[in-house]
Design a protein that fits this description.
It comes from Nocardioides oceani. Belongs to the carbon-nitrogen hydrolase superfamily. NIT1/NIT2 family. This is Carbon-nitrogen family hydrolase. The chain is of the alpha/beta class. The protein has seven helices and 14 strands. It has a six-stranded mixed β-sheet with strand order 5-4-3-2-1-14. The protein has a six-stranded mixed β-sheet with strand order 6-7-8-9-12-13, with helices on one face. A hairpin with a 2-residue loop joins strand 10 and strand 11. The chain is globular and about 50 Å long.
């Protein structure tokens, strides 16, 4: 039996005139109107605003907050895995607040088809060169690789990364060393650097011989035009499908056996010396 994964990348567009609650309602309804699929993926900080750092502290939520709870309900109803993109996570009362004591993280959340939080990943590389994320958020400290299981006991090892992480190849190499065959990469990547987004996505897939799903944001918020161009990149570094700059959904079917075939036909990973 062919080992395949049907995916839908939801490229959410938003501006400054839509509240978090309105956006969550809209996106949850949108997901429920999609054709049945194995995995739905959302962008980084689509609810809280990728560049809306001035409001992060007031809109931050715990993992049991509204955004993840609503998406968990949808996942359970549809029996579909949902990568919730990421949220501004606030530490639970009494929980550790991180080395800097801020108690806020950029956290991506993978929800199982049973509607349960399966895996979380706190973004390791904070974007902003001393402003934005580095000034407000704690840095993640642990890699995350999850085992997804869906119809007929099909499974895949999926590594989690977020946006700016794309510029750090050692993170992707480490995910591969932990068995990742697929990397799920939500982002709020701006239009002025969209060619970097495209080039680096292909490079990370090609050099690690793994599928890469890049789910980006569209629209303009906080004065920043987002880049869109969500895409599916194969283990051979080939772009299988790609969106434009506007709000849209990208669907596709991943041949997961392609990972082992590419690695066997061109076994470059076995020649590493450093």
């Amino acid at each position: 039996m062919t080992n395949t994964l049907d995916v839908a990348l939801v490229q959410v567009a938003y501006g400054d005139d839509e509240s978090v609650a309105q956006r969550v309602d809209r996106v949850c309804e949108w997901i429920q109107d999609l054709d049945q699929t194995d995995l739905v993926m959302l962008p980084e900080l689509w609810a809280h605003g990728g560049f809306a750092s001035s409001t992060w502290s007031s809109t931050a939520e715990t993992l049991s907050g509204v955004v993840i709870s609503r998406l968990a309900e949808v996942a359970r109803k549809l029996s579909t895995w949902i990568h919730a993109g990421s949220i501004i996570e606030r530490a639970e009362d009494g929980a550790a607040r991180g080395p800097l004591g801020r108690g806020l993280w950029n956290t991506s959340v993978l929800i199982s088809a049973a509607g349960e939080i399966h895996t979380t990943y706190r973004k390791i590389h904070r974007f902003g060169f001393g402003e934005g994320e580095p000034q407000l958020l704690e840095a993640g400290e642990e890699l995350a690789v999850a085992s997804l299981e869906w119809s007929a006991n099909q499974t895949v090892r999926a590594g989690l990364a977020t946006c700016y992480d794309l510029r750090f190849p050692e993170l992707f190499r480490s995910l591969g060393e932990q068995g990742a065959e697929l990397v799920l990469l939500p982002a709020a990547w701006p239009m002025p650097r969209v060619e970097h987004w495209r080039l680096l996505g292909q490079a990370r897939a090609l050099e690690n011989q793994a599928w890469v799903l890049q789910c980006n944001t569209a629209g303009t918020h906080s004065g920043v035009q987002m880049g869109g161009h969500s895409r599916i990149v194969s283990p051979a570094g080939e772009v299988v499908a790609e969106l434009g700059a506007d709000e849209d959904v990208l669907t596709g079917t991943l041949d997961l056996d392609l990972v082992s075939r590419v690695r066997a036909e061109f076994p470059v990973l076995g020649d590493r010396r450093l």
